[in-house]
Amino acid sequence: MTTVSDRPLPPLPDPASGADAEDDARPGxxxxxxxxxxxxxxxxxxxxxxxxxxxxxxxxxxxGSDAVCTIEVDERWAAALTGVETxxxxxxxxxxxxxxxxxxxxxxxxxTGSRGTFALRSPVRPNPIAASxxxxxxxxxxxxxxxxxxxxxGTPLVDIKPYFASTDAVGDAVVGWHAGQSK
Amino acid sequence: MTTVSDRPLPPLPDPASGADAEDDARPGxxxxxxxxxxxxxxxxxxxxxxxxxxxxxxxxxxxGSDAVCTIEVDERWAAALTGVETxxxxxxxxxxxxxxxxxxxxxxxxxTGSRGTFALRSPVRPNPIAASxxxxxxxxxxxxxxxxxxxxxGTPLVDIKPYFASTDAVGDAVVGWHAGQSK
Lengths: 183, 183
Prior knowledge:
Chains A, B: One of its GO terms (biological process) is methylation. The first copy, chain A, has 183 residues and is mostly beta strands. Chain A is 2% helix and 29% strand. In chain A, the strands form 2 sheets. The first copy, chain A, has a 6-stranded antiparallel beta barrel. At the A-B interface, β2, β5, β7, β8 and β10 of A face β2, β5, β7, β8 and β10 of B.
């Protein structure tokens, strides 16, 4: 049988040149050389459908729009959705495939000053995995309708998890630097 | 310069034979063939230190222990931690590198019946990325001390994000199948 180790990794774009001019480094930003090799491989397991086809149109965070978006799971994984219909909310992981990966300090457009990548929810990060809590409004076969996404139409899906308030909700959490600023 | 597309992907273990006998399929579980190729590559950006060296010792979820765990970020990404010290809570993504990836329906040991992978927080999933909300108790250089992890000592780190209560906390979320059962 075919093993995970046999699976080739297709070419990806150069992260520093970037697919999108909006990703060019700005004053105050710091880039580092990326490691020489990957450590693990990701399968895209579906695609996300949203109303937004340009980055400038995307809401600035996942509560910035009430638009109903779709999550289309590849048929291969259809059975993995069994039981998902009992969840009011899901944690969705998706791959921001147009983001560069080498910035450790960033100066977000909608904010003042520079901050470390791990203090930001920017798609630009070593592993461009976005995580959003969504409200499930319906399932039709392998297509989920959800509210709470902020990404470009066609963004690759990498995981869906049930959201457990008991472990995932911390209502009094504080991000100190974020004194009324956008993320 | 070296581009992302030049980076080779090292061999990974066969997911179906599995590194760990606990991953053998149980009655009621369903496996599917994995795709022929990866779509993207992950960099391990650090390691997680926990008190648990055997899976049987790990807490059953991230609220199952008050143990202070450590997150050691590789020096390459040190500057990306700027500002993280102002956060009370973080969303940590890590790679469950010992989990098989081909099960779409699972029968968890601590639960009754079978459920779809996307309705479970099991490490066994197409992309074995775990997501945990942790409380930050201290930072010393590139080492974070946190409460709220449940994984094996040495687990690879893939991302750290600030936890925003405004978008990440949904206190009234319900997982319908989970009527007092463990996840």
